[in-house]
Amino acid sequence: MVLTRIFAAVGQFPQDDAVLARALELATPLGATLTIIHVIDLPDCKADFSDQETLQGQAAIAARDRITAALLRLGAQTSSAEIRIEAGSAGLKLIEICQEAKPDLVVMRAHQKTRFAERMLGSTTDRLCAAAVAPILVVKRPINRPYARVLLATNGADNAPAALTLVEALLPRASLHLVQAVEIAPQLQEAMLRVGTDQAALAAYRDALIQVARNDLRDLSAQAAGRTTRAILYGDPATALVRATRRPKVDLMAVGPGRPSLIRRLFIGSVTRRLLRDAACDVLICHQRQER
After folding, report:
1. With a threshold of 0.85, does the pTM exceed it?
2. Which residue among 115, 136, 160, 195 is least packed, with the fewest CB closer than 10 Å?
């Protein structure tokens, strides 16, 4: 896999300094084109910002100036990225742009949901993750070092080989640790107990799940270009993965897209949502990139 086009979706500064810094850090060694996208959402805002005498035109100039200042603040050349100013609702416009341009990666911040509508319908980040139009790197904390240790989480049914390929193409020098959480679903365990399953049978079933997970991780590791380590996590997957992100040397958690569904464009999965909210490191959502 060759990554040639990376988007950085920015809104406010200095909050999005880390987004720009990560996008530059990833795009530069890959020789990828970096496009910085800012969406202006104003009443009656039109896509044409050419008239500098209008409110929309002044808003576009101000946005471009803020992005340029951020690049300079990070020690980057202003020519190192294309700046694209768009008009509309941020979430919908970013989905539209990604469907049109088909980037290899979108870098953005983990937006906090503050308004009632966002709590009900999801933030800009939630919407883009649910749309599954491109792999998304969600930056959750300031940069203090390059990505060196990556956890790749799989559930055995989430197209993990494609996620592995993306991570290795994006971060060829990072060490990779494969993890899978194992748990008997609470509803299933309750049903098993109701029909008379004893503790020995429950333990045997749990052991069988663990063996399947070990096989999944072994098979995935065999497909890796470099050396990997692997481990089984125990308990609720979301809780176990969040706990794993709190290890001192973990820089990034990568997760596959999960099983496709009819409502994936409205909601993201519970594990992904929990990671975006509670993970102690950045999160890479490895949606399969669209063909150009």
Report:
1. yes
2. 195
